[in-house]
Design goal:
single chain, 120 residues, mainly beta, 9 strands, 0% helix
Length: 120
């Protein structure tokens, strides 16, 4: 039998490398907002650019990059992004093992990073 469907043991197709999302927010406070983001996924990283606009006059543009490293039982993620309106850079780093997650977060205020183990 010659079928055109995928066999049960065929690998799943890779997701598309680009993703465009649009969101509309209708807050109970009467404010409304729209958010648009464009992401591109590379082999081990993702880059994005986005914008948010509120009817109250709050506007924000964002750009960012995330790197993911995977090896056996270890996952290491580092992200960096910049936002306008209240201009700031943030760069959280996260490391996951099989049974624990260790996250270090840096703040844009220059405060020291903290290390927080937690159960997944």
């Amino acid at each position: 039998m010659n079928g055109t469907g995928a066999a049960a043991n065929d690998p799943a197709p890779a997701p598309p490398p680009n993703k465009l999302t649009f969101s509309y927010y209708d807050f109970s406070s009467g404010k409304e907002g729209v958010d648009i983001n464009l992401r591109h996924t590379f082999k081990s990283s993702t880059a994005w650019i986005g914008g948010y606009r509120e009817n109250s006059g709050f506007d924000q543009a964002r750009v960012g990059y995330q790197y993911d490293y995977h090896h056996n039982w270890l996952t290491f993620t580092h992200q960096s992004d910049h936002q306008t309106e209240v201009p700031s850079w943030s760069a959280p780093t996260q490391c996951k093992t099989l049974d624990r997650k260790f996250a270090t977060r840096s703040s844009d205020s220059g405060a020291p990073a903290s290390i927080m183990p937690s159960r997944i």
